[in-house]
Design brief:
9% strand; 174 residues; elongated; alpha/beta; Rossmann fold; Arc Repressor Mutant, subunit A; 4-stranded parallel sheet; 2 domains; 47% helix
């Protein structure tokens, strides 16, 4: 594979990786960290949950092997522009350890009220409690109450995890 890249300066490299054992090696060999302008990696795999997180984070896109041709093309275009793409199936498999059995709630318990969803969006935008209270014209105490309800309903232990779970559940878009 490396001999095929010799003399080329690709913007994107599309990789089919089956084994988690070779991810770091392949990525480091193709584009060592000391190269200032590394190509963007688009990885096709059905084994992402077993890959080292740092290796996945060095990729610009991770898609399942069953990805449609247009999804692959779109991921390549996104990678060229610097966007990071994780296919929903891959994202779910990576997120599942975070939402293990102790966080598992039945879907009816996860439903946020419109106000809670609004507060969650503001948290995702980086607003603090006072700013949220000011924008919604409610007290700080009420904001804290909403945040407590959001954390409980999503099974999150902190604001960042609530935002991650809110994105995963499709409650907010960032």
């Amino acid at each position: 594979m490396l001999d095929q890249l010799e003399g080329l300066d690709p913007d994107v490299i599309l990789l089919h990786l089956e084994s988690s054992a070779d991810v770091r090696t392949v990525l480091a060999t193709i584009a060592p960290a000391e190269i200032p302008l590394r190509p963007a990696f688009v990885i096709l795999t059905d084994n992402a949950e077993n890959f080292p997180v740092d290796a996945l984070l060095s990729a610009y896109a991770v898609l399942p092997l069953a990805a449609k041709a247009q999804e692959i093309v779109d991921a390549i275009h996104a990678a060229v522009t610097g966007l990071v793409v994780f296919h929903r199936d891959v994202f779910n498999s990576l997120l599942s350890p975070l939402v293990g059995s102790e966080h598992a709630l039945d879907s009816s318990e996860r439903i946020l009220t419109p106000r809670e969803t609004e507060v969650l969006r503001m948290i995702a935008d980086g607003l603090g409690n006072k700013d949220i209270a000011s924008r919604l014209k409610i007290s700080d105490h009420t904001v804290k109450f909403h945040i407590s309800a959001i954390l409980a309903k999503l099974g999150a232990s902190n604001r960042a995890e609530a935002v991650t779970l809110g994105i995963h559940e499709g409650l907010i878009m960032v």
